[in-house]
Please model this.
Amino acid sequence: MSTIASGILPPDVRPAEREREATYDGESLDEVSTAQQLEKTWATPRGLWGWLTTVDHKQVGRRYIVTAFVFFLLAGVLAVLMRLQLIKADNGFIGPDLYNQIFTMHGSTMMFLFAVPVMEAMAVYLVPLMVGTRAIAFPRLNAFSYWIYLFGGIMLWTAFAFDIGPDTGWFAYVPLSGPAYASGKRVDFWAQMITFTEVAALAIAVEIIGTVLKLRAPGMTLNRIPLFVWSMFVMALMVMVAMPAVMLSSTCLIMDRLVGTHFFNPAEGGDALLWQHLFWFFGHPEVYIIFIPALGFISAIVETFSKRPVFGYPYMVLALIATGFFGFGLWVHHMFATGLPHLGSSFFTAASMAIAIPSGLQIFCWIATLWSGKPVFHTPLLFVVGFFVIFVLGGLTGVMLASIPMDLQVHDTYFVVAHFHYVLIGGGVFPLFGAFYYWFPKITGKRLSETLGKWNFWIFFVSFNITFFPMHILGLAGMPRRVYTYQAGLGWDGLNLLATIGGMGIVISVLLFIVNVVSSLRSAARAPSNPWSAATLEWATSSPPPSYNFAHIPFVTSAQPLWDQGEQLMYVRGLRVDKREILLTTPLDARPDLREPSPDPSIWPLLSALAVTALFIGSIFNPWAVVIGALPVAIALTGWFWPKRNEAMEVESA
Amino acid sequence: MSTPRYVLDVSVLPNYGYGTRSLTWWGLMGMIAIESTVFVLAVGTYFYLMAQVSEWPPGRRPPDLEYGTVFTGVLLLSLIPNIWLQRQAEHERLPQVRVGLVIMSLIGVIASVVRAFEFTVLNVTWYDNAYGSIVLMLLGLHTVHVLTDLYDSLVLTVLMFTDHAKARRYVDTAENATYWYFVVYAWLPIYVVLYWLPRWTQ
Model:
């Protein structure tokens, strides 16, 4: 064996520790037996039990993506209902109470149950493959995260089905959402849904950070980390700072409502604006938590389809980090209409405008990449181009809204609705669809039809603009958000009709996507391991990847290993194949450091999630549920972490 | 398939390590980062609410000092056995680790009892006014951390006195000690805010 890399091992290697009767990958084991043994070790058990106990990041990630997409469809149905209600003046299709629930459910589902989870889900599936490891860090936590997310989403939609859906908007401003104006349980379900989804998101953030810092393939130094992985890393850091704010504020809200605290009650020294500060300290970074992963999709797609590395790699990384920081300096721009001191507001105006700089820098780097490469306009790249157009338009209205006089004029009008759909659909959903088309062969082993894909893109792109561009004009004409109807004669009828027609076009494009997915899953044609001739490690393994991801851990010597090393990809040997083992490397320069066990499948994450769910839902009806419910939670978590008996080196089960 | 090109043999690597080398440490740091953010935002909320009123604490006496100060003293003194326990765990000395875990579990019990008395001398409850709400929130949040670490210590103690006392349990013991540092250090600013700030502002 070549030993060109042996100098990078840590000083405390203890060859004597090589366990007797253990089997390792390497020359001593032929490739067929290696694959068989690894499959035996890493495969999820078959059947229902396996489905409930799996800790495979690919299965959990796939499940997460599908679930988030179902919530996207559900929230989309609500959008269609709203557009039908607004199709003409004085329409009586949906009454005001249901309409309030519908727009609240639409926003809450899109933000909390679709946009953030789907981005994290892509990270859960792809990051371990891209950094070249066998499993995600803390795989049981990953399974737990999915269950908690699923149960939170089911809880919210069940409540909605029973006419107790939240009705105070996706940001649930007090006093409207407080005990005085929102009786019943509607807002309580909303507040607990927040707790569910944020617990799930925080768990994934920790896993991503652990995976990126400790599980990278040897040789993948900081400057060789794919931009996609960088973006997910920055996203995870933002989640860790942003999500606690909304958990704290929604906990304060539910306590104000249920046990009589006074956080937001001005009569007893509380303050309504405190809610807005805490909510938007989360809520604005939330937009970037959706947007930054999308930047990662775009970098991956642009690189592959222009057949050259992304221009300005270090600036791209710094721009991601800068966006992450700036994202926390913007929250007050949601509150310009609340009468805060003008001097303070002007800082937030400056920050809101400054964040356009790193975003613009990245767009110029991508354009430079495409310009100097040989771009091939397959469907994923089309969605990226669609992103450029739509997101730049949304960014321009964003700069307009950052200026306070303009903001005061159009606050709470359809101009704002148009703006954030341009940035969120343009900046999030378009890159996401590009990512679906791009990674679909890797995840499923099948390819989506290019013809249907192009129809999907063009209908989506045109319909999107027909739907949302008129809303700018409606907003400038004074149409407020969140009204269930409007009077005839205000001049809003034609544009609303146009927006509804556009909305139907979006429905058709999404249906085309679903048709494309179903027909390609049914087709027999298999995708090769690297159908796009891409450069990063997830394409170095089969499509779909085996349970153990890689037969051998790759040894990376550049940022585009599959382009620079091609068939000559180098590997390290010596991980056990007879039990689950992962290679830990050092955080900065990815030198091999430890072989740690990785946990086996377990039912305890599901049981823990059920116990936590009982506590959360119980607390809506009785505060004592928090105390009583803590007991099953403690039992389940103990079961989760309890080491298995009679194992020479028992499996760590985080 | 041709034989892969190997450049390194990692089978000689150890299969656990302490501190930044272990994945457990990084997971713990993630948890601490999240919880620190919660504490910072909760303390920020305290100051925000303080800025809303002219009198602080509004219409109340500040919490009585005695139990909170005893609690702080217990936590500070607990650092000594905690440092010792962490060191013993990293050297994998089973008898000392057992003693250390018993001591830290006892300290957790004592701290929890003192904390229970603290709740009785706050001179305010959560439903009196927003000041009471945030005081109870801060103290409650920290109490959850004390109880969590106590529970972890008890479970580890059981493991270390049974045949589970294997290599990776030493890593867990060392990281549990790291978590206790966080419980102690997070308390110090909260102690100042809850007990001394309302005295200085009166």
Summary: The longest strand of chain B covers residues 5-9. Strands of chain B lie at 5-9. Chain B has five helices and one strand.
